[in-house]
Specification:
Layout: E1 6-10, H1 15-27, E2 30-37, H2 56-69, E3 72-77, H3 79-95, H4 102-121, E4 126-128, E5 133-138, E6 141-146, H5 163-167, E7 169-170, H6 178-187, H7 191-194, H8 210-217, H9 221-225, E8 228-231, E9 237-241, E10 264-269, E11 274-278, E12 284-295, E13 305-310, E14 318-324, E15 330-339, E16 346-351, E17 354-362, H10 371-377
Parallel strand pairs: 1-2, 1-4, 2-3, 4-7, 8-11
Antiparallel strand pairs: 5-6, 8-9, 10-11, 12-15, 12-17, 13-14, 13-16, 14-15, 16-17
Helix pairs in contact: 1-6, 3-4
């Protein structure tokens, strides 16, 4: 074993995780690369089956780089855990009228658990990924902070990681920009890797058509839900829609009707199969509840703690105060109204560049995950 120790590196086959493995290899770690097979590529049913992260080509690219550089590589099959948790949760959340975060769910409940388990089996002290984020120890706590590259920062998707997981995690790319990482790949002779297209799609929906995916996963979904009503905030019927799971809060395009002015999805009610529409100003809100919180920087939230709260990945964040509420939830009060607070999305709290913690945006009254089974067994909504 090297003086630096043995480290397990998650290698998707893309440029970021590949360069992370190269960096650690050159630093003197004994690198073991692992590529996680998360789903059956032939089962998506979409129009494009070879794109997106962790495709078969990506797995082969990761293996080839490891062989060339002389370190071990293996494939970790987590399809059963992934399908039974992440994909099922993705479907259930949409059927409950929420907008899910599958990548965050996967990081929190599947990937890190799988990596740490395999690291233990291989006597690896650490694990590493190609995320653009930083991690440090402070006051006995492990803290995630933003990556140097503001355009690539991925701290938002890491709020669910436990202290135990963070204690053994390394983020080699945290203090580099994307152009610098591309140049490193070129300098190492991997120009094709540097030119590789990045995927922003959900790995198990490679054609980026989540509505089609839902239809393939839930028999009879579209037939069951067609004829649902568009309503305004006063309950007046504006027309018919395809079915509430096919819409997200803040959506303007793809409504299938002309209203004479821009209209946005402002509320989704799965119990009545109605989608509420309104003007852009109707999307504004000043407070929300957050369920299943995970606090990283501190032991707990102090009532009234100030934080910049991001309500989606590409959101700039807004000043807020965070309070403890009943049933383990948090209540967030924004200093100024924010737009398109979407149940199911993640709320992440920041203190400067540091992640305080995060959780899932909740409804005032939550729809349980088991709702989909009841919905699909009820009489057709008309």
């Amino acid at each position: 074993m090297s003086k630096k120790g043995r480290i397990l590196v998650a290698m998707s086959g893309g440029i970021d995780s590949s360069v992370a493995a190269l960096m650690l290899h050159e630093e003197g770690y004994e690198v073991i690369g692992v590529t996680m097979k998360t789903w059956d590529y032939d089962s998506s049913g979409g129009a494009r089956k070879t794109t997106g992260c962790c495709s078969l080509d990506d797995i082969n690219d990761a293996r080839a780089l490891a062989v060339e550089k002389g370190f071990h590589h293996m494939i970790l099959d987590i399809r059963e855990e992934f399908g039974g948790n992440i994909i099922d949760n993705f479907v259930e959340e949409y059927l409950a009228g929420r907008t899910p975060n599958p990548c965050i769910m996967c990081n929190t409940h599947i990937k890190w658990d799988a990596l740490l388990k395999r690291a233990d089996q291989l006597d690896c002290e650490f694990i590493a990924t190609g995320h653009y984020a930083n991690r440090r120890e402070e006051n006995g706590r492990y803290v995630i902070s933003k990556g140097l590259d503001e355009n690539k920062d991925q701290s938002y998707v890491l709020w669910g990681l436990s202290q135990k997981a963070l204690a053994r995690t390394r983020f080699p790319l945290g203090n580099f920009t994307k152009p610098e990482i591309r140049q490193m790949a070129i300098d190492h002779g991997y120009e094709s890797l540097a030119k590789k297209n990045e995927s922003y799609e959900i790995c198990f929906v490679p054609d980026n058509d989540y509505r089609g995916f839902l239809n393939r996963k839930v028999d009879g979904l579209e037939e069951k839900l067609k004829g649902g009503k568009y309503v305004d905030k006063d309950g007046n019927v504006l027309g018919e829609h395809r079915g509430y799971p096919y819409y997200t809060i803040g959506q303007r395009k793809g409504l299938g009707m002309a209203f004479g002015e821009p209209m946005f999805v402002t509320k989704i009610d799965p119990l009545t199969n109605t989608v509420q529409l309104g003007r852009e100003e109707d999307l504004m809100g000043h407070s929300m509840y957050v369920r299943n919180p995970n606090i990283q920087k501190y032991e707990s939230i102090e009532d009234g703690m100030e934080a910049v709260t991001k309500i989606r990945y590409n959101n700039a964040g807004a000043m807020s105060r965070v309070y403890n509420d009943t049933e383990g939830r948090l209540r967030v009060e924004f200093d100024h109204n924010v737009s398109a607070i979407a149940p199911g999305q993640s709320a992440v709290f920041y203190d400067g560049d540091d992640v305080i913690g995060g959780g899932f945006i909740a409804r005032s009254t939550e729809i349980p995950l088991s709702f989909s089974h009841k919905m699909m067994n009820r009489e057709k909504v008309t």
